[in-house]
Design goal:
mainly alpha; 5 helices; 113 residues; single chain; 54% helix; two-stranded antiparallel sheet
């Protein structure tokens, strides 16, 4: 027998992460949404790559190395790593997309997600 024991991650915090992504998505204008192909998953993965949660792979099509997001599954990350990712993604959101929105305003809207 072989057993792997992992410390459980906080499901509520996991949901908060996706609420963060969904709330940020709602702030995008039409052109920004279209840039991400009107796809929240593409948006989330782009944020994760921008936050540094990625690995390099070689694209034979592009003939270049590209960044792809790492998994955020419960089995691939512990609570500490996930909290770091949350903070880094939040920084990306406020430094690139929501530069003109206050954290307080955003957090008031985050409650609705």
């Amino acid at each position: 027998y072989s057993v792997r024991i992992n410390k459980a991650r906080n499901v509520r915090f996991h949901r908060l992460y996706f609420a963060l992504i969904n709330c940020a998505w709602e702030y995008l204008n039409e052109a920004q949404s279209e840039f991400f192909h009107n796809n929240k998953t593409v948006f989330r993965k782009s944020l994760e790559v921008s936050a540094g949660h990625c690995e390099k792979v070689f694209s034979f099509q592009l003939k270049n190395w590209v960044d792809i997001p790492k998994s955020i599954s419960f089995g691939k990350m512990d609570e500490f790593e996930f909290r770091e990712l949350y903070d880094r993604v939040k920084d990306v959101i406020f430094n690139t997309i929501l530069r003109n929105i206050s954290v307080e305003e955003f957090e008031k809207n985050l409650i609705n997600f």
